[in-house]
Amino acid sequence: MKRLWSRRLRRRSTVVFPLLFALVAVTGAWQGDWWSVLLAVIQLLLAAAVATVLVWPDRPPRPARRPTTGRLVGRAADLNRVIGLLGEPRETGAPAPKAVLIHGMPGVGKTTLARRAADAVAEHYPDGHVRLCLTDAGVPVASGDLLTMVLQKLAWAYEIPANPSERATLFRARVSGRRILFVFDDAQEPSQLTELLPNAPGSLVIITSRRNLSPQLNVHGFALDPLPEWEALDLLCSVTGLDGFTAIESSVRLVQACGRLPAALQALGARVADEDADLALLSPESIEADLGRASRPRWATAAVAGIAAEFGRLSRLERDALCLLTQVRSRSFASWVLGPLLRVSAAKSDVIATTLAGARLLEPAGRDDRFELARYRFHPLVRTFTEAHLNQDADLASTCRDALDRLRGVYLELARSALDGSAQHPLPGLDVAHHWIPETSPRAGAAECLAWIRFEQESLWEEVPALLERDRDFALRLVTGFTRPHPAAVTVAARTGWTEITPSPVLAFDYLLAHVRIGLIAGRYEQCETVIDGVRSRTRPELLRGRALMHLTAAEVYGELGWAQRAKRHVAEGEALLGTGGEPRLRSRLEAARQLADPYLDGPLPDDAYWRAMVSATRHHVHHRHRNVIDDLCPVTGREQGDDHRRTMLHRRLAQANWELHDQSRADVGAALLAAARHAMLAVLAAESTGNRWEQARGRLLLARALTAHGRDEDACTQRHLAEKLIADGGRPPPYLMIGDPQYSAPGLVG
């Protein structure tokens, strides 16, 4: 009783003490004259108030509030889709409860989405809500133990049978005829859920798992992908409490480094908010440093907790395979690369890759056009985590060099085979690769083999400097097989001394052709023009095709840059060299370059999907129809195919930034300017991935325009200086970056 009264007094002191003070004051004011009756009444009222506060019964305790779930930003469409799936019947089998499985990689937000979906439909299931995690400290809980936990949550007051089959029968009888909502989180195996799925209609089941178990469980499956760029940026801003324009460059880079995973973004935002850190000072390199430490900071541990848990479930061979795959330079790779890396068979390589993809540690990236094998790629956060583990494993790091040497040998053999092949015999002379690749006879001809070379050029570019020392002819043929620009060409040019090359009659023509290609990719246009002019005197018939390739490559590059006069001149030169005949593939490329150089020229669009989209977009761009440009480039950007995808995404981002700045209605000026700034910064990142400094400058200038219009003159000045430095370092810029362009009039480069 004494403890009870002390609690009450502490809780009600804010009311009791003021009333007591008023009672004392009134008593002290007693003077016994005519108003004594009034004071006595006031005394009685105050005393009654004090007594009422002290003896009034406590209010009944409120039910404990459920912990607040994570932020659900940018998942409205996904939430509606999950709720819609909950209303659809199962595809096969007898009538059963509605069920849906949400699956995706670690940290993508499956649990949060499942909880929000359950909250949205909870009122329709009045007989009970059961939420259960199917793992304990990363270990899957057995089905029998899960039945016991579910029965306890269903308020079963009697003894639970020890026999698992009796427990399952009791569970089904308990839920039969009732409307109960079940949420089963983090399922690992189908066997965990076999007995937990009710066999009678009326209930609702929501399951989350990193693996797609929907075919085995016969339930609807919903694949949850990382957030789109926009929603990921909004999530980071909401967690940090910053507006979209503050440190926009760092925000975009950090979102890309985190792979747009909600868990990683929330952990990073919490670090910024808790430590009051400057978001502009953070960088992807700092994130990689935090993840690479043996003792990670708390935020980094939270960001990769799910990845680390899934990584820990792998076998030793699977962990080694994942670590070694981080050393493959190509952005995507086929499963056969695990053969030379691990010295395993082709069948074993495919099994390992499938297992890693099932654990969501690798992402699917289409199929290999040459070998008809599935291709995979890394999520940025998974790659960073795995590279850190590789650096900490001394034994694996020591064997990494030998594994990469074996893979390089296979790459070079396949490249040589593709260059030597023909339509009838596309793969001659394979001696080593057949040990690792299941079928070495592609269905396509030589043209598709060359397409494979371009698709693998990140890995093949690394071999060019060493090949120039021991097999110069093959290295030159390999370089001339690349028809798409790539940033690695700048590194190759610096390492091989091609940055200072001058035309000379003693140099082989193949060497000059390779130099022109690398120079155009690296943005050294004046040097390339000098080399092209220097080979005009070489009129031998066998060199005419090489000279035509020089002019064709230059016309394509200048056409994409909008350098119309130079592009037209090289188109005319190439057409004169090819004449009326020539290879059909070169003729089609020449026609595409002609239409890129002259947007007003009508004609049939090219057959190649990339050039067809580029020609159509160029025709709209010359009339400033940016919305049409976006529509033309959307189908190409959705296919995720190597350099073509990155370059098309670059042009699309630039068009979207221009549309937000010029064409869109300004009902909400702030939202339009923020959208333009984000698109411009994403264009800068895309230009960096392709090594195009001019488009980097263009994106920064568009970003500066948006910042200036929003009143952030200091940030806009920083972007202008960065753009000017890129232009100064690159020699003569294309015409659209000149001061005379109306989009970049005065002052300086930005209006």
UniProtKB/TrEMBL annotation:
Domain called AAA+ ATPase: residue spans: 96-377
Transmembrane segments annotated in the record for this chain: 38-56
Key word Metal-binding present: no
Gene3D superfamilies registered for this protein in UniProt: P-loop containing nucleotide triphosphate hydrolases
Name the UniProt record assigns to this protein: AAA family ATPase
Keyword Transport attached: no
Keywords of the record: Membrane, Transmembrane, Transmembrane helix
